[in-house]
Amino acid sequence: MPATTIHFVRHGQVDNPDHILYERLPGFHLSDRGRAMVEATARFMAEAPGLRDLEAVYSSPLDRTRETTAILLEQINPARVRHGLKPLEPIYDRRLIEAGNEFRGKRIGHGQGALWRPSNLRLILDLRRPSWGESYRQIARRVGDFVRQVVRSHPDAQVLAVSHESPIWSYRHLLETGHPEHNMLLRATALASVTSITLDCETGKVLGIAYADPAAGV
């Protein structure tokens, strides 16, 4: 049966010494370690036939995902050319963008950050249902729309999608449990990790979900 696999890659570590919640803000780039993380994942993908033989590459339009995508393609495209395949160019899709968040631009989770201010406690009463921004259901819905379009556009193919922790995990959690709500502290989507979701092209049924963390030792 024809099946399409979408390999969701989370971006690498971001240079953020002031511990700002950067969310969708511009100007936040990969750190040196973040680039090394993505390079490790790129080598992993370039050496794996199923990952190397991609038909398309999609990316969130934010700086850190654009940079992650560029590093991945620096490794993947030469490997493709060596095997007689054409190099790929990224397609930017806002459905892969980071979750919206009311703490955007604030210093959180470090010292006297915004999370600990009494005026903000109302936003974090339930970590499974974010009252601080875009809901997990909204996030999973837009990623699901993206996935359905990709399966229609690229039947029986391998596709790369570079995104962020919340979109990747919210959609995966929906597929695995039937609901996207989750405890944000229990996610399993490491920086520069690969979450591969395979779907039947005719029915849309999930045939398998695999996870790899090639940058774990970086």
From TrEMBL:
CDD domains: HP_PGM_like (cd07067)
Stored SMART domains: PGAM
Superkingdom to which the source organism belongs: Bacteria
Full protein name: Histidine phosphatase family protein
